[in-house]
Amino acid sequence: MAGVIVDSTILHKFIECYMPDLVSYLSEIGCELNLDTIILKWLVSLFVQSLPIKFSLIIWDMLFLEGNIVLFKASLGLFKILKKDLMTKTSMGNIQF
Predict the structure, then answer these.
(1) For position 5, what pLDDT does the model report?
(2) What is the pTM of this model?
């Protein structure tokens, strides 16, 4: 589990680096990028609980080919896809993954 917490911290840094406007917006509405529960759910379950099985299996295939970096790539991709929707929310309670 400690590895997942480290991965979550690394992912936070990636999001801050690649999507500073999203981080800034979430901070404005009081979220402060406190998405640990979502990120942990994604990483621990390898996306099985959050994505259609078809997409989860693609991530799993890539995980076996490329290693853990795929988890970061998939997570950043999901945040990129969800960014527009996330930036319309006014509170953490309105955010669903």
Answers:
(1) 74
(2) 0.77
